[in-house]
């Protein structure tokens, strides 16, 4: 009945309801979802995590497009107007769009990270950038393996292939590599 | 055995070859770039539930909740004997259902908590929002924020590390400043109106 001490895991993001963060407890990963005046928690015990699935998303590109459109729109009007004061005001409006675009580009590509246990598959909204996901996986993966024990690679691959094949996954499918 | 791991986009089973690579590969069905990692828990059979054994010998200890079942283990919190059905293992402790329920209600079993009120956010919102909207709602908002901050001071904080007390202190400071501002405004308005100020130290001259 003691309180766990949590350490910060890479990742900070937003769900629909509010900010989201992930923490590492003694034996579990804690997902915190902020809801203005409340916080809701999801716990993924290291011994229960069955899989981590990462899906690339276009969210980052979409936001880049939005920020770039805003930047071009206001900067374009600023270039066209003759009045110097008006141009400066418009450039002032365009600057936040430029900063947001720069930050978005620097943060890198976006993704959606899912953690699967026997009873749920939950999206980790806090882990939404590819670089963060790599850091998150590098921290969590060894702990999950340490908690669950490592199976012989061949046996694990064969059992996994059997499980996926029974569900209809093609065994002969050679997936095209789409980059790291 | 567990159900298969599926693509989050199209729910098609992920190909076994996709688990073997550390790079993004296209889903066989929808083409979404995926990176999948599987762990031994995926192949572990689901644990079977146990119902507890019936008492066969009159000398056997019985479960507190099921008198006809043999005691399996004593509860680590209350010491009552419980059968295998009632035994709940949590963080290496064996607890009975009543202790689980009590721990969940009182908040002593933080692992079972799925939601908590953020009193610091409530106090801050009540302290900051009224002065932003208009000064007069702060007459009610500021004392309410101070009350909420004091009330929330000893309430359970966020499970994860968070600057709760700092936010509560900030709410009190903002509320006090708002009250001082309101007081100053009332004083200023009274001065402008030409009436005697309530805080004047000069003695009034009786004619």
Task: Describe what this molecule looks like in 3D.
The complex is a heterodimer of chains A (180) and B (207). Helix content of chain A is 44%, strand content 26%. With 180 residues, chain A is an alpha+beta fold. Chain A folds into two domains: 7-57 and 110-144, PH-domain like; 62-105. In chain A, the strands form two sheets. Chain A has a four-stranded antiparallel sheet, covered by helices on one side. Chain A has a three-stranded antiparallel sheet with strand order 5-6-7, with no helix packed on it. In chain A, a hairpin with a 4-residue loop joins strand 6 (111-116) and strand 7. In chain A, helix 1 (59-80) runs antiparallel to helix 2. The longest helix of chain A is centred in the middle third of the chain and has 24 residues, at 84-107. The radius of gyration of chain A is 22 Å and the shape is elongated. The mean pLDDT of chain A is 89. By secondary structure, chain B is an alpha+beta fold. Chain B contains four helices and seven strands; from the N terminus they run E-E-E-E-E-E-H-E-H-H-H. In chain B, a hairpin with a 6-residue loop joins strand 3 and strand 4. The chains are: A alpha+beta (180), B alpha+beta (207). Chains A and B meet through strand 3, strand 4, strand 5, strand 6 and helix 3 of A and strand 1, strand 2, strand 7 and helix 2 of B. Strand 5 of chain A pairs antiparallel with strand 2 (33-38) of chain B.
Supply the key terms.
heterodimer; A: 180 residues; alpha+beta; PH-domain like; 26% strand; elongated; B: 207 residues; Herpes Virus-1; 3 domains; two-stranded antiparallel sheet; 7 strands; 34% helix
Short synopsis of the structure:
The complex is a heterodimer of chains A (180) and B (207). By secondary structure, chain A is α+β, with helices and mostly antiparallel strands. In chain A, 44% of the residues lie in helices and 26% in strands.
